[in-house]
From TrEMBL:
Domain Nitroreductase: 168-353
Ranges annotated as spanning the membrane: none
GO molecular function: oxidoreductase activity
Source taxonomy: Bacteria, Bacillati, Bacillota, Bacilli, Bacillales
Stated name of the protein: NADH oxidase
Organism: Ureibacillus sinduriensis BLB-1 = JCM 15800
């Protein structure tokens, strides 16, 4: 009989224990690390009886020990038989190899099963009420101390386009002209997309803010770092948007035109935008309230909500925009000077006035370039 290790299992050390994690079925076992040679032997398909070759290499293994170990590993589905139900499951999940083991592990590990326990809202409230007594919630705002502050003009609510025109005209734009955007439009863009529309203090468990986009648990973990490339009345450079004060905090005033291409992992079109908004997530805001690893999925949803709002507000202002999640995380972390263990890179949006080609070809422009191998 052919046996091998179940490829839908992950092994790791935790608190001195050798843990076997069946992430598909949400089952974990602590196993004796002395059986590692057995696991190593069956890293590829082997005949069951080949286990006894270990008797020649390890004096601590007796024939009886190996028989018992083999039985237990098969019973727990750590070792699987060829053409078994577990083998068929491996075949059915083979397409996940395209994205690698980490994506498969993340998806199935955060997929709720019928047997999984999750607390209801009353249990959640009691847990957080107790937690708050010893663990203060993280600040809902991020501000950079000792930085130069630039007050922004009040946002404009002057009617520009109707709702349907704004919604149906939404499209990805990657080609811009050289016309600078105004500081007033930048202020309106920041406030309507990322700003706090209202605040509630000491409601329920924590202070909360409301924006034009929803956020899981009203935690709003996303921070915005504008890179100014072409704005009237504002120096080029890297800034942080203070949601609390509706102002820009200066990180530095240097031309970032060439650096942003490296930050965007070689996507050359980003440097044509007037402003780039680099997004991060302060994970402790969400982590304080939610213990489930599924919350990481919600961070991505939060990013999607903000991205769409950015598209709509930009179109309403007569600007083109794009979003990309393809970034050089390490480069961005270094430029933004963030603690990458607590604040993680999420994506980038860019805004600016559309080029003549973009106005002429619209959504087709991108695909015309792809046909010419200019992706």
């Amino acid at each position: 009989m052919l046996l091998k290790i179940n490829s839908n299992i992950v092994f790791f050390w935790k608190d001195g224990h050798f843990v076997c994690d069946d992430f598909i079925h949400h089952e974990q076992r602590s196993i004796d690390s002395s059986i590692y040679p057995i696991l190593n032997l069956f890293s590829t398909w082997k005949e069951e009886n080949e286990i006894f070759t270990l008797l020649n290499h390890n004096e601590t293994f007796t024939e009886e020990f190996l028989k018992v170990a083999l039985f237990q590993l098969k019973e727990s589905k750590i070792l699987i038989e060829n053409y078994s139900k577990e083998y068929e499951q491996e075949v059915n999940l083979k397409h996940w190899d395209t994205w690698g083991s980490s994506s498969k592990y993340f998806h199935y590990n955060t997929r709720l099963l019928n047997k999984d326990h999750y607390i209801d809202k009353d249990e959640q409230y009691e847990r957080l009420s107790s937690k708050r007594k010893s663990d203060t919630p993280p600040n809902i705002y991020k501000n950079i101390n000792d930085s130069e502050k630039i007050k922004l003009p009040l946002p404009s609510y002057k009617e520009k386009k109707g709702f349907l025109e704004t919604l149906l005209g939404r499209q990805t734009v990657r080609s811009f002209n050289d016309k600078p955007i105004s500081l007033n439009d930048l202020s309106t863009m920041l406030y309507l997309t990322y700003g706090a529309q209202s605040c509630k203090y000491e409601i329920g468990i924590d202070k909360i803010i409301f924006k034009t986009s929803p956020s899981g648990g009203c935690r709003h973990p996303i921070e915005v770092y504008p890179v100014i490339l072409n704005v009237e009345g504002l120096e080029k450079g890297l800034y942080h948007y203070s949601v609390e004060n509706h102002e820009l905090e200066v990180i530095h005033k240097k031309d970032m035109t060439d650096k942003v291409v490296d930050m965007a992992a070689g996507q050359n079109f980003v440097k044509g935008a007037s402003v780039l908004f680099f997004y991060t997530a302060c994970i402790e805001r969400s982590m304080w309230k939610y213990q489930s690893p599924r919350t990481y999925r919600v961070l991505m949803m939060d990013m999607g909500h903000l991205s769409q709002t950015c598209f709509l507000v930009a179109n309403w202002l007569g600007l083109g925009t794009f979003f990309s999640g393809h970034l050089n995380d390490q480069y961005v972390e270094e430029e933004l000077k963030i603690d990458s263990n607590k604040e993680i890179v999420m994506g980038v949006s860019g805004i600016g006035y559309r080029s003549n080609d973009s106005l002429e070809y619209g959504r087709d422009l991108r695909f015309l370039k792809e046909l010419n191998y200019e992706i």
